[in-house]
Amino acid sequence: MFDPALLRTFLAVAETKNFTRAAAQLGLSQPTVSQQIRRLEEAAGRWLVVRDTRAVRLTDNGDAMAGFARTILAAHASAESYFTGSAMSGRLRFGAADDLAMTQLPRILRHFRQGHPQLNLELTVNQSGPLYRRLKAGALDLIFIKMHPGQNEGKLVRTDSMVWVGLEKTTIEPGQPVPLIAYQDPSLSRQLAIDALEAAGRTWRITCSTREVNGVLAAVRAGLGVAVFPRSLIPSDLVMLSNRLELPALGGVDFTLLANPLAAAGPVEALSSAIMDRSLA
């Protein structure tokens, strides 16, 4: 039998790759986290993590334990909800900005559904602006979107910086317009890019206008120009160009959860907590 408390601690370490961050996430001291990992390793009879001065990584047995831990904790949550009569049911209409789906959000939603099997989760993926309007119209219960910093609305999940992104070999000849790949208007990243370029006195031209993040990425990978992304969401095959090509600074962005006040509070709070408590990196 593996103690669920030890499994939760192990997953926090596995996801953060850091004992200090895992301790902060769980509200525990770092020595307590280390002790609980040792107890789990003793129970399993195997080494689960490799520790060094810079980082923590999972062993092959640790990777296997992570999968088992998620399954065990999901089953534990389902059983607890069933026998305490607190299992949530009904429908939760959740909207997410399409580029935020590039984070660990899909994994979080999968675990949420495993823990709440009687709840019908309906996912809508779109741009932040349309999702915000649908929430205000009562068509969604909870949304996870990008917003301008400091708007003091909803729950702030994380703050990030917006940066210019392109291929490593991207160049812009002096005096030539900046080739801009952007979402169709209205779009927060599109407006940030245009406002920054015009404030800096740079000319620009739209080389690709698309509704989806996959369209933006395809155009960037085809070498059609540069795009604006949250720094934490840059794909591994692209590079940040903000310190090159004399491109202007873009400012920050807030990843924010906003709820419909008329929606059922239980499901909304449960999913909000799942997103707030888990690493999106």
From TrEMBL:
Domain HTH lysR-type: 2-59
Record keywords, A-Z: DNA-binding, Transcription, Transcription regulation
InterPro entries with a match to the protein in the record: LTTR (IPR050176), LysR_HTH_N (IPR000847), LysR_subst-bd (IPR005119), WH-like_DNA-bd_sf (IPR036388), WH_DNA-bd_sf (IPR036390)
Keyword DNA-binding: yes
Coiled-coil segments on the chain, per record: none
Spans through the membrane: none
Gene3D superfamilies linked: Periplasmic binding protein-like II, Winged helix-like DNA-binding domain superfamily/Winged helix DNA-binding domain
Top-level division of the source organism's lineage: Bacteria
Family the UniProt entry places it in: Belongs to the LysR transcriptional regulatory family.
Annotated protein name in UniProt: Transcriptional regulator, LysR family
